[in-house]
Protein backbone atom coordinates (compact mmCIF):
# COMPACT_ATOMS: atom_id res chain seq x y z
CA UNK A 1 0.00 0.00 0.00
CA UNK A 2 1.48 3.30 -1.06
CA UNK A 3 0.01 5.53 1.61
CA UNK A 4 -2.39 5.00 4.51
CA UNK A 5 -3.89 8.44 3.96
CA UNK A 6 -4.87 7.42 0.44
CA UNK A 7 -6.60 4.28 1.75
CA UNK A 8 -8.52 6.23 4.41
CA UNK A 9 -9.48 8.90 1.86
CA UNK A 10 -10.76 6.17 -0.46
CA UNK A 11 -12.87 4.65 2.32
CA UNK A 12 -14.18 8.04 3.45
CA UNK A 13 -16.66 8.10 0.57
CA UNK A 14 -19.86 6.26 1.61
CA UNK A 15 -20.38 4.63 -1.80
CA UNK A 16 -16.80 3.36 -1.94
CA UNK A 17 -17.11 2.09 1.61
CA UNK A 18 -20.31 0.24 0.64
CA UNK A 19 -18.55 -1.29 -2.38
CA UNK A 20 -15.60 -2.28 -0.18
CA UNK A 21 -17.92 -3.90 2.38
CA UNK A 22 -19.73 -5.85 -0.33
CA UNK A 23 -16.42 -7.07 -1.73
CA UNK A 24 -15.39 -8.13 1.77
CA UNK A 25 -18.34 -10.54 1.76
CA UNK A 26 -17.60 -11.97 -1.71
CA UNK A 27 -15.83 -11.07 -4.97
CA UNK A 28 -18.13 -9.33 -7.46
CA UNK A 29 -18.15 -8.15 -11.03
CA UNK A 30 -18.64 -4.46 -11.85
CA UNK A 31 -22.10 -5.10 -13.33
CA UNK A 32 -23.20 -7.04 -10.29
CA UNK A 33 -22.13 -4.23 -7.97
CA UNK A 34 -23.86 -1.64 -10.16
CA UNK A 35 -27.11 -3.60 -10.07
CA UNK A 36 -26.99 -3.60 -6.25
CA UNK A 37 -26.25 0.11 -5.81
CA UNK A 38 -28.05 3.33 -6.72
CA UNK A 39 -25.16 4.47 -8.96
CA UNK A 40 -24.32 3.83 -12.59
CA UNK A 41 -21.92 1.18 -13.84
CA UNK A 42 -19.35 3.83 -14.92
CA UNK A 43 -19.56 5.37 -11.42
CA UNK A 44 -18.94 1.96 -9.84
CA UNK A 45 -15.93 1.51 -12.13
CA UNK A 46 -14.55 4.87 -11.01
CA UNK A 47 -15.02 3.97 -7.35
CA UNK A 48 -13.29 0.64 -7.93
CA UNK A 49 -10.38 2.42 -9.60
CA UNK A 50 -9.94 4.63 -6.53
CA UNK A 51 -10.05 1.58 -4.24
CA UNK A 52 -7.57 -0.24 -6.48
CA UNK A 53 -5.19 2.75 -6.58
CA UNK A 54 -5.37 2.84 -2.78
CA UNK A 55 -4.27 -0.81 -2.67
CA UNK A 56 -7.52 -2.04 -1.16
CA UNK A 57 -8.90 -4.15 -4.03
CA UNK A 58 -7.58 -6.20 -6.93
CA UNK A 59 -9.31 -7.54 -10.00
CA UNK A 60 -9.05 -10.51 -12.27
CA UNK A 61 -10.58 -11.02 -15.65
CA UNK A 62 -13.07 -13.84 -16.05
CA UNK A 63 -14.08 -14.00 -19.69
CA UNK A 64 -15.52 -10.57 -20.45
CA UNK A 65 -16.02 -9.60 -16.83
CA UNK A 66 -13.69 -7.90 -14.36
CA UNK A 67 -14.21 -9.44 -10.95
CA UNK A 68 -13.02 -7.40 -7.98
CA UNK A 69 -12.12 -8.59 -4.51
CA UNK A 70 -10.40 -7.28 -1.39
CA UNK A 71 -6.61 -7.17 -1.67
CA UNK A 72 -5.46 -9.07 1.43
CA UNK A 73 -1.99 -7.54 1.20
CA UNK A 74 -3.28 -3.95 1.19
CA UNK A 75 -5.81 -4.67 3.91
CA UNK A 76 -3.10 -6.38 5.98
CA UNK A 77 -0.83 -3.35 5.67
CA UNK A 78 -3.65 -1.04 6.74
CA UNK A 79 -4.46 -3.30 9.69
CA UNK A 80 -0.79 -3.47 10.74
CA UNK A 81 -0.65 0.32 10.68
CA UNK A 82 -3.75 0.53 12.89
CA UNK A 83 -2.54 -2.26 15.19
CA UNK A 84 0.55 -0.27 16.13
CA UNK A 85 -1.68 2.23 17.91
CA UNK A 86 -3.48 -0.55 19.76
CA UNK A 87 -0.12 -1.99 20.84
CA UNK A 88 1.04 1.45 22.01
CA UNK A 89 -2.18 1.95 23.97
CA UNK A 90 -1.84 -1.46 25.64
CA UNK A 91 1.81 -0.78 26.51
CA UNK A 92 0.87 2.57 28.06
CA UNK A 93 -1.94 0.94 30.03
CA UNK A 94 0.41 -1.81 31.28
CA UNK A 95 2.97 0.79 32.36
CA UNK A 96 0.31 2.76 34.25
CA UNK A 97 -1.12 -0.31 35.98
CA UNK A 98 2.30 -1.59 37.03
CA UNK A 99 3.35 1.72 38.63
CA UNK A 100 3.95 1.29 42.36
CA UNK A 101 1.35 2.90 44.57
CA UNK A 102 2.47 6.20 46.05
CA UNK A 103 3.18 6.22 49.77
CA UNK A 104 2.77 8.99 52.29
CA UNK A 105 -0.04 10.96 53.91
CA UNK A 106 -1.53 12.14 50.59
CA UNK A 107 -2.02 8.56 49.41
CA UNK A 108 -3.83 7.36 52.55
CA UNK A 109 -7.25 6.04 51.77
CA UNK A 110 -8.57 5.95 55.34
CA UNK A 111 -8.63 2.18 55.67
CA UNK A 112 -10.16 1.41 52.28
CA UNK A 113 -8.93 -1.75 50.59
CA UNK A 114 -6.64 -1.48 47.56
CA UNK A 115 -8.67 -0.62 44.48
CA UNK A 116 -11.75 0.48 46.43
CA UNK A 117 -13.00 3.98 45.89
CA UNK A 118 -12.87 6.42 48.74
CA UNK A 119 -16.31 7.73 49.56
CA UNK A 120 -16.85 11.45 49.30
CA UNK A 121 -18.54 13.43 52.06
CA UNK A 122 -22.27 13.98 51.51
CA UNK A 123 -23.07 17.08 49.50
CA UNK A 124 -25.75 19.51 50.73
CA UNK A 125 -29.05 19.18 48.92
CA UNK A 126 -29.72 22.30 46.83
CA UNK A 127 -32.83 24.20 47.80
CA UNK A 128 -35.62 24.27 45.27
CA UNK A 129 -35.89 27.80 43.82
CA UNK A 130 -39.72 27.78 43.89
CA UNK A 131 -39.81 26.97 47.62
CA UNK A 132 -37.66 30.03 48.34
CA UNK A 133 -40.17 32.32 46.60
CA UNK A 134 -43.16 31.06 48.61
CA UNK A 135 -41.84 32.30 51.94
Describe the overall structure.
The protein is built from 6 helices and 3 strands. Helix 1 (4-12) runs antiparallel to helix 4 and helix 3 (30-36) crosses helix 4. The protein has a domain at 4-74: Orthogonal Bundle (Arc Repressor Mutant, subunit A). The protein is elongated, with a radius of gyration of 28 Å. A hairpin with a 2-residue loop joins strand 2 and strand 3 (65-70). Strands 1-3-2 form a 3-stranded antiparallel β-sheet. The chain is mainly alpha-helical and 135 residues long. The model has no long low-confidence stretch (mean pLDDT 83).
From the structure above, extract its key features.
135 residues, 3 strands, Arc Repressor Mutant, subunit A, 6 helices, mainly alpha, 3-stranded antiparallel beta sheet
Order of neighbouring strands in the sheet with most strands = 1-3-2
Q: Count every beta strand, where a strand is a DSSP E run of 2 or more residues.
A: 3
Mind telling me the CATH class of the domain at 4-74?
Answer: Mainly Alpha
Q: What ranges have pLDDT less than 50 throughout 5 or more consecutive residues?
A: none
Summarize model confidence as the mean pLDDT.
83
The ordered H/E elements are HHEHHEEHH
C-alpha Rg (nearest Å): 28 Å
Helix residue percentage: 40-55%
Give the termini distance in whole angstroms. 74 Å
- The percent range for strand residues is 5-15%
Major sheet attributes: 3 strands, antiparallel
How large is the count of helical segments? Answer: 6
Task: Write down the oligomeric state.
Answer: single chain
CATH topology grouping of the domain at 4-74: Arc Repressor Mutant, subunit A
Backbone structural class: mainly alpha
Relevant CATH superfamily of the domain at 4-74: Winged helix-like DNA-binding domain superfamily/Winged helix DNA-binding domain
What spatial form do the alpha-carbon principal axes imply?
Answer: elongated
CATH architecture classification name of the domain at 4-74: Orthogonal Bundle
